[in-house]
């Protein structure tokens, strides 16, 4: 009788012991599989983050160089008041960067302001006084309507993070270049009974102070947490409208044609954000412009998933080591229980290694059943453990992000132009883009929205089987010392 057949007969003869072995092995395999599933899901989530979360490179005026130049001129001539001069970004340079590898798209941002003509703006109860009235004419050069000119509103940080949402109509797209289309906030629309298709008039505050007729193509809802700006020329967030960057430049003046305050490039592969920045610096005049990178959302997700993956690996190895020890102890007990059987086989001339092989085959048979059972329960256990790990990492990421943001000034303020989040939270926004307003929350939100997609595949079961075989082999090797040292004559006499 070969040892394969003996192994099968032994398992079927002692059903109680075999069932106990199956239960113990299934429990071990279940947690090993859960760890493997969480680890693989974390890898997938990190990979998906490259597409969904992304990273950005922002081209804007080199303010550091501008300040250095201003200080230099001040030291040579103290008769005049120092003046900070920055250069608007040339779109021709931006388009060159847009052609680089790994650049998916770009969004030009231009910030300015105008006065409402023939409709009411949203007033505030601040000490600076409200601005409600027909046109709400401001005493300063800043208008009561903040204009954020963009290429696409969908690429604006507040819209990407869903803190602002289009509720009616549509947002601004590249097709709106050269038009007077506008997207207004829902509170402003409600105040003046405006809807999609209606027109409003805006009057420039500089130059010839021309009046422009704007067509409403969309209405958006700003975040309820968006704060009203304070200070001279401040305006309520509901008074911010989105237009094409070409119109915003028209309001600013002819010298701003084919320029932008900043241009944000979306990077298709966040891992390549540094190489894009390096390549971009070779294109631009670094004394006038700067390139700033922002892959914080991707890095947050990556860090969280790496922590989850690390914990999953620990689960796998701890359970594997514990399982090996447990099964080795069980096999040792089995060997002691079957000393007489082993002695008889040895006396009949059976090889010691064949007897060890019989025990190994018995455990492999148990393993096959256990892997199948673990396959049914692995997804459930993996989801429960995965949710706990992601929740823990999300809490950590949120706490860390909040602590960081508390040390930063403001929350969406910016310059008197009234731009509240007119670009991605990256780079140096010359006109008060929303770095402080949405970046932290967006980053934390990215981590919070990351889910582990846990599914059991054939490859997962194959990998589990490999781990199981290794565990069985090690446990048998640890326990086989008793078989190798056993003297059949002594066993049979005893």
Automatic annotation (TrEMBL):
Signal peptide: none annotated. Residues 315-392 form the ABC3 transporter permease C-terminal domain. The chain crosses the membrane at residues 315-335, 355-376, 464-484. It comes from the Bacteria. Its main location: membrane. Pfam families: FtsX (PF02687). The keyword Transcription regulation does not apply. It is a multi-pass membrane protein. This is ABC transporter permease. The lineage of its organism: Bacteria, Bacillati, Bacillota, Bacilli, Lactobacillales.
């Amino acid at each position: 009788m070969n040892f394969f057949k003996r192994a099968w007969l032994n398992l079927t003869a002692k059903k109680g012991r075999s069932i106990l072995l199956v239960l113990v092995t299934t429990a071990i395999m279940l947690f090993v599989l859960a760890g493997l599933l969480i680890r693989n899901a974390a890898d997938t989530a990190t990979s998906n983050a490259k597409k969904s979360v992304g990273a950005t490179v922002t081209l804007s005026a080199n303010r550091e160089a501008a300040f250095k130049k201003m200080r230099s001129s001040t030291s040579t001539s103290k008769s005049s008041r120092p003046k900070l001069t920055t250069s608007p970004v040339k779109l021709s340079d931006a388009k060159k960067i847009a052609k680089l590898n790994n650049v998916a798209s770009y969004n030009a941002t231009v910030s300015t302001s105008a006065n409402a003509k023939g409709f009411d703006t949203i007033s505030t109860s601040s000490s600076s006084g409200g601005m409600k009235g027909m046109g709400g004419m401001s005493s300063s050069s800043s208008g009561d309507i903040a204009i954020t000119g963009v290429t696409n509103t969908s690429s604006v940080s507040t819209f990407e993070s869903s803190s602002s949402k289009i509720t009616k109509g549509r947002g601004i797209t590249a097709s709106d270049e050269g038009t007077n289309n506008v997207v207004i906030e829902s509170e402003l629309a409600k105040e003046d009974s405006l809807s999609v298709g209606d027109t409003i008039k805006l009057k420039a505050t500089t130059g010839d102070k021309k009046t422009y007729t704007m067509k409403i193509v969309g209405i958006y809802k700003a975040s309820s947490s968006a704060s009203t700006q304070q200070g001279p020329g401040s305006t309520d967030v509901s008074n911010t409208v989105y237009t094409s960057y070409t119109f915003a430049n028209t309001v600013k003046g002819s010298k701003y044609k084919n320029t932008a305050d900043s241009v944000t490039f979306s990077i298709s592969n966040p891992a390549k954000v540094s190489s894009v920045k390096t390549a971009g610096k070779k294109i631009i005049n670094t004394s006038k412009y700067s390139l700033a990178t922002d892959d914080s959302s991707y890095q947050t997700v990556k860090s969280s998933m790496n922590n989850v993956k690390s914990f999953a690996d620990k689960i796998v190895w701890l359970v594997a080591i514990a399982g090996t020890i447990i099964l080795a102890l069980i096999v040792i007990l089995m060997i002691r229980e079957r000393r007489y059987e082993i002695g008889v086989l040895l006396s009949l001339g059976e090889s010691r290694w064949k007897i060890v092989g019989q025990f190994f085959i018995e455990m492999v048979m148990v393993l096959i059943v256990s892997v199948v059972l673990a396959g049914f329960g692995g997804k459930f256990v993996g989801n429960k453990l995965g949710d706990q790990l992601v929740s823990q990492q999300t809490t950590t990421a949120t706490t860390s992000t909040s602590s960081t943001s508390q040390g930063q000034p403001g929350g969406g303020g910016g310059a008197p132009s009234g731009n509240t989040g007119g670009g991605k939270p990256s780079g140096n926004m010359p006109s008060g883009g929303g770095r402080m307003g949405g970046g932290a929350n967006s980053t934390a939100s990215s981590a919070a929205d990351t889910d582990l997609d846990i599914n059991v595949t054939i490859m997962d079961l194959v990998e589990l089987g490999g781990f199981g075989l290794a565990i069985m082999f090690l446990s048998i090797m640890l326990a086989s010392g008793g078989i190798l040292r056993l003297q059949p004559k002594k066993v049979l006499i005893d």
